[in-house]
Structures
1.
Amino acid sequence: MFDDKPAPGAGRTMAEILAARLSRRDVLAGVASAAALAAMGPARELGAATTGGLTFKEIAHGADETVHVPEGYRSDVLMRWGDPVLGDAPAFEPRALTAAAQAKQFGYNNDFLAFMPLPLGSANSTHGLLVVNHEYTVPQLMFAGLQGGEWDYQARQTKAQVDVELEAHGLSVIEIKKSKGQWRALPGGTYARRISMTTEIAVSGPAAGHARLKTSADPSARRVLGTLNNCAGGVTPWGTILTAEENFDMYFAGKAASEADRKRLDRYGFGGKQRYAFANHHARFDLSKEPNEANRFGWMVEFDPYDPKSVPVKRTALGRFKHEGAGVTLAPDGRAVLYMGDDQQFQYLYRFVTAKPYDPKNRAANRDLLDSGTLSVARFEDNGVLQWLPLVWGQGPLTAANGFESEADILIDTRHAATLVGATPMDRPEDVDVNPVNGRIYAIFTSNSNRKIEHENAARRPDPANPRGPNPFGHILELMAPGGPTSAEHAAPAFRWDIFILAGDPRVADVGARYHPQVSANGWFGAPDNCAFDPRGRIWIATDQGNNWTRTGTGDGIWACEVQGAERALTKFFARMPLGAECCGPCFTPDGKTLFVAVQHPAADGVGLLDFENPVTRWPDFKADMPVRPSVIAVTKKDGGLIGD
Ligand code: FEO
Ligand code: CA
């Protein structure tokens, strides 16, 4: 949701950087041999070929009030902000919102989506649970009377409004069913659930109980009220959901009393403009009163959607940063491996490997698997090697001399630890997901307006893994673990990496874009963010340009392409969002016949003044008495076939 300011491409010097990368490709091809590469063994084979390509007729760049999908496809609105989730939810009354009603209704700004088949463990593609993150709120579009100056509406917000916002965050779990080709939601029932900023969440792992997590409301440091700014997420092999707390800093106001606390909070972006009115009405969001409350957010949260009574858990072993999401897979020995991005300019890419293997025969045995293991951070070497640097207390600089008294300190101040061990600062790491067909990992970097060729800090200049400075359009890297597609050694200490796509308009030389050479005038995109893989292993890329869509001339959407073969990186435009919306959470049913998409913050980005009374679109209802509503859509093929074929 951050806006990166656009900037022209970097021309000549960028060409030099790309030239360096190309020589590295020669190294990978065996022209020269680096010791590190040799140690990794032979290059792995790709998985089985996919298909003859994507056959849909791509849609056009542009921007208007509604959703577009290709001919032969349909998109149906499945859940809207305010729709009932719990069985006793009241009807949506947009001019009379209450926290009590919102606590039972679908929240705001849907982001991550997971389709969890019913029953658990099946591949049912017509009946399951839809799990949805509600990342943040846009008060000016939710409540009447808040339009006006950029941030001054906060001072006018009532406690009743803030309490609605607390309930509009978090997650929804709702049963959905497809019959006669049409999806519908079934509110209530066994699994329906809302998780919000008033839900009790447990804390586990090495930082649970730590002094820096204690507050006046929770001296145990093991019970937090709520989960916040849940952006993307992941699904574990044991059928639980991971939900990522991303921009947690923006809900807090005030200044911590101690210089040490302020310094640590600065590392996470605290201290900027107040963006929410939470602290005006709830003391726990005021850093001058509860400085430790901020340490209780920025975690990855796990919960079991199949057990509506289960207590969600903040898994501190996974580190504290602006978690974007988690790509989860298994190493050949059964240990679970999570790939995670920290979405801010010049932040890092992480990997977590569990200490114990996943037990496929005993679901309960995996309950606390994510509480112990090794968190590592990525260093991208110029020679195409990716080193995973472990963040282990007592090793290298991670000692008391640098302020780390225990592993818990490393996990609370993960960014600081990652910097000390020499991680590579990246261009806003967003989704990092594992392609189930070729076993490769796709890491998405959305943009970075502040990477500069002449930056005074050498770590903030372009490098082979972030080759453009500034980088307004983002890029996608392909990471390759040693081993074959079905036996990739995801826990190995070193991988190989390469560039998959450099986004932006390939017709403008200064942009320095790179796709398949035949990409069409509609096939290029900017600011990739989330992705999904269909059953054939093709990648579906969702974008979040922020305000910059006004410069690219197209709304956000989904672009799809093959990852191998003759049409590798030949991206085609598949779905376009309404004005001001970001496209999130692409998620397929196991049969690949439905693609769920989250349409987040329609009428918000790049549209000028935000006004409840006069939004630039009233999607999806288009009724004068209904506000614009973030919603989830289900995209299907009219002939019932596979999406993309
Ligand atoms: Fe919430 Fe990084 O997007
Ligand atoms: Ca995102």
Note: Residues 2-51 have pLDDT under 50 and may be disordered.
2.
Amino acid sequence: MTIKDQIKSLQEELRQHNYNYYVLDNPTISDYEFDMKLKQLQELEAKHPEFADANSPTQRVGGAITKNFETVKHEHRMYSLDNSYSKEDLLDWETRLKKMIDGPIQFTCELKYDGASISLTYENGSLLRAVTRGDGVQGDDVTANVKTIKSVPLQLKGDYPTKFDIRGEIVLPFEGFNKMNEEREEIGEELYRNPRNTASGSLKLQDSAEVAKRPLECLLYNITGSNLGIKTQFESLEKARAWGFKVPNAAKLANSIDEVLEFVEYWDVKRHDLPYETDGVVVKVNSLQHQDELGYTAKAPRWAMAYKFKAEQVSTVLLEITYQVGRTGAITPVANLEPVELAGTTVKRASLHNADQIEKLDIREGDTVFVEKGGEIIPKIITVDLSQRPSNSTPTQYITHCPECETELIRQVGEAQHYCPNYNGCKPQIIGRIQHFISRKAMDIDGLGGETVALLVNAGLISNYSDLYELKREDILPLERMAEKSAENLINGIELSKAVPFERVLFALGIRYVGETVAKKLAKHYKNIDSLIATTPEALVSVDEIGERIAESVTAFFTSKENLEIISKLKHFGLQMSLSEEQLANQTDKLVGKTFVVSGVFQSVSRNELKKLIEDNGGKVSASISSKTSFVVAGDNMGPSKRDKAEKLGIPIITEQDFLDMII
Ligand code: AMP
Ligand code: ZN
């Protein structure tokens, strides 16, 4: 087999596995095998860039940065939908239809997915463009981001038309949404409110590699174009499915409004079992010929109608508002409710988010409130039933002092959350910080769990994470339920954690906004804790991906005398406070202060390897050419507009070999 065929066949195979996994939910090989094959393809493509393909499965990981999303006019307008809320509304609609259409009318019933609408353009079976709905006439070109969504086929199969648009909804399934929030919690960031906003926010991220990490899905429901040879909506769903799109199987043909209503009733209950959010049903006149005759109003097609589910709501009494203190000192108000059954679970608590939310709802203890459950773990309070408000009720006064340590709370301008600033003396902060320190992605201390940490703190045995390294067997044996064996495991686990690499130690310190990725960047750039401590906010923001907010937080952390003492102890106990020899071996400072733009395809290294070489040698990689660019490394097929720009700005364009000579 020639190299070209080998690449083609691997691409083909991986495409099929992607399809099995993300569209059919039915993988036929292990993740490991998949990764191996993907790696093999990556290597082949890197070695033979002449066969690279913008729609290869290797392009799913993202990396392209979009600073400004280009506005694109939709070739066919993206309409809104008329809404209905009752059987009567639907019957009225049918009556209107019958005045305009002769003979029986068939309907396609679909679920109304709650996410961000998207229009995908395909030409010759390849994804050409992805554009948001925008105002319906024009939207934003988000192609680079959408390409990372695995259920969006980059290359179609079967008998597809040469050119068409297909519309769908990008959703974030509950499971992925909840996982993203767990990670947010870990770095002390405010949680995402709901999957829908998070999905549409994701499409507008500048870094497509970030989008690639989000478990988004794309569900399709409408094909537009001319001469497609399709006669009905239902057929178009089947076709789309056959070409490789993810089209949920819930769609059903109905021969009357009664059958439509059956569909509505069924899904009103069953939707709670779906992995993503739906807010209704969309009923469409099935025949495209009929659709043509019916046409559009100024805002929506006459041939379609959305039926909105009533979100499942119950009313209950708000007993008390309590306040939780998180690891970073963030205060979260919690509504403690009279327990009530809702969508199959007993609800006792709901988050009130922050002071603004309480004020907006004007919610008070003793109020009767309506609670709704979306897909999130925590249900939300929608409104207060004012008719039930007790006559002696008074507005909620948000707390001014920490419920745990009585310190006066602060609230920074522009922030929604109140904070307890008593960093070193507030119990939940102390415990939370140590729990974060020992967690799996941080120091991963075997034999020590979150509850034991609380026990140790409450017993006065530890008050910060450096104290862990001074614990002795005999200190902890007297603790409740601490057997000889567990004490030993605990001490061993702590000892072993001394080998955990620097970047994870940095993450474990629990600096606000410093998650795993940022910790890695910082470790790589500064190489050891001392140079990180010595740095300035200005220097920090010049590091790739470090913004002002992170820079300020990092500097504040290392300005604290207490923190510096703790760090010096950790160092003394033998924790890894710098990159290992091995990590350092490949790194130099040869390119410090230089910014590179990489363009085109290369012969001896892949683009990613090239970028890594730049970073390993202290340089910075940027996506677009500006006056700050030091060099453009040009491979084959460098874009003409990039070349123009570089020439205009007088930025040297160098070859791959020139670059490699720089770092020898
Ligand atoms: P609305 O935003 O309430 O006007 O509702 C219209 C939107 O519903 C469309 O723009 C689509 O993004 C979305 N939608 C979700 N599921 C479907 C579906 N099965 N068919 C048509 N539109 C849908
Ligand atoms: Zn406090």
Note: The first helix runs from residue 3 to 23.
